[in-house]
Design goal:
Layout lengths: L2 H7 L4 H4 L10 H17 L4 H10 L17 H14 L1 H22 L6 H8 L4 E4 L15 E4 L5 E10 L7 E8 L7 E8 L5 E4 L13 E10 L4 E6 L6 H33 L16 H30 L7 H27 L9 H8 L10 H13 L15 H4 L1
Parallel strand pairs: 1-4
Antiparallel strand pairs: 2-3, 3-7, 4-5, 5-8, 6-7
Length: 419
């Protein structure tokens, strides 16, 4: 596909997408304020209300909304770069707000293809409304292919949802909760229903369960649904149960996974910079009073970490640029996107471990930012699909034994329109 074709489709060419942003959404002053609050939120296990206000004022919630609908219209590669900047200072904030942004990214994906079925999401986001993800369920290890939450069809086309959702990031602040549930009213043809429930709907209850080792400010509490109604206009898709193959799911997949992946790059980059700066200050008696920057082992660890960091950034940005620009990876798209996420999460953990090694025992103290980053980076492998599930999908894809037409994002956001 030529760059001219990509431009006609509304996407940027890969080299342009990877250039430094000329329109950063968050100023250095805003990032400094947000970064200054991160330790306090972590210490008290509190939600980032002040950060959210700053992000809303800066237009960050409208980041993926097309300019025609009142948003900033950033591309996926631009969003990835911007979310890395946020994660560098406040990983929990970046991780949680990604749960809002991937809904808007998925809706924009459809809108740019000429599908207005989710345009209302973009309009609500442009008004400052917050969307959250209600996908996590205890015991459901196949994600959107199944659900333990019951979705009961209503005569007017709406659905009532009953069941439990876990890891509901943004739980204190969301206005709309995107959920999926199982419609088994026709046992021979079960369906997965994707819909949105308003916060004021009857039968929605948040239970504060979030007290974790890391990413504490996400406040990903449990959500209980007791016949909570999604109105017909807020039912986005009703698909056959099993691995989904639909543009709306493609949009979710294409925006959510790179957004999650780059958060862990941001964590690792922050840890690396703190460790390198510390090594240039700490002195060593064994080195005759020179700083640890002169210690061969510190140099080796920093070199190894730097190589890993560059690899994370390159892979995640390359996948985001390919997806946005329409590179045709065909049936390998799920494997490509999941590989970037697994590599980012696993390698970021290695980088943080190297950073604490360089920093020394001081990184054990709660007053040291590295201690928090050490805990935050541990969450990377648990984002669905988990590391184990991702390896299975990736392996089966390349071996040609993937049984079902699982999540296979279309390569370009505008492929259908172009055809």
């Amino acid at each position: 596909m030529t760059s001219d074709t990509a431009d006609k489709r509304g996407a940027t060419a890969p080299d342009q997408a990877l250039s430094p942003l000329g329109r950063g959404v968050l100023s250095d002053a805003v990032l400094e304020r947000i970064g200054g609050r991160a330790a306090g939120y972590d210490r008290t296990n509190s939600f980032f209300h002040e950060d959210l206000a700053d992000l809303r004022d800066a237009g960050y919630l409208r980041l993926a909304v097309p300019t025609e609908l009142g948003g900033l219209g950033l591309t996926l590669p631009e969003f990835v770069r911007e979310n890395a900047r946020l994660a560098y200072r406040a990983p929990s904030t970046a991780l949680a707000i990604n749960m809002h942004l991937y809904w808007t990214g998925a809706a924009a994906y459809l809108w740019r293809r000429g599908d207005t079925s989710a345009q209302w999401i973009l309009e609500e986001a442009a008004r400052g409304q917050v969307f959250a993800a209600g996908h996590g369920e205890p015991g459901n290890d196949v994600a959107l292919a199944h659900s333990f939450v019951d979705a009961a069809p209503q005569p007017d086309g709406g659905y009532r949802f009953t069941g439990r959702k876990v890891f509901t990031s943004l739980s204190p602040a969301w206005d709309w909760l995107g959920v999926h549930g199982l419609d088994s009213s026709d046992p021979a043809h079960p369906k997965i229903v994707h819909a949105f429930i308003g916060r004021d709907a009857a039968g929605v209850r948040t239970v504060e369960t979030w007290d974790t080792i890391g990413v504490r400010a996400t406040k990903s509490d449990d959500t209980f649904l007791d016949g909570a109604l999604a109105k017909p206009e807020h039912v986005t898709r009703v698909l056959p149960a099993g691995p989904p193959n639909d543009p709306f799911i493609d949009g979710i997949f294409g925006w959510a996974i790179p957004g999650i992946s780059i958060v862990y790059y941001g964590i690792a980059k922050r840890a690396f910079d703190l460790a390198a700066a510390g090594a240039q200050r700490r002195t060593s008696v064994a080195l005759g009073g020179k700083t640890f920057a002169h210690h061969p082992l510190a140099q080796s660890s920093i070199a190894e970490a730097a190589i890993k960091l560059d690899a994370i950034q390159a892979l995640v940005e390359r996948v985001a640029a390919d997806w946005w620009s329409g590179v045709d990876h065909g049936a390998q798209w799920p494997a490509k996107i999941l590989a970037a996420k697994v590599f980012a999460a696993d390698t970021a953990r290695e980088v943080v471990d190297l950073a604490t090694k360089v920093a020394g025992a001081g990184s054990l103290f709660r007053s040291n930012e590295l201690e928090r980053l050490y805990r935050d980076v541990r969450a990377g492998g648990f984002h669905p699909p988990s590391s184990d599930a991702s390896h299975e999908i990736i392996g089966k894809t390349y071996l040609g034994v993937l049984d079902a037409p699982a999540q296979q994002p279309q390569a370009a956001p505008f492929a259908a329109a172009a055809e």
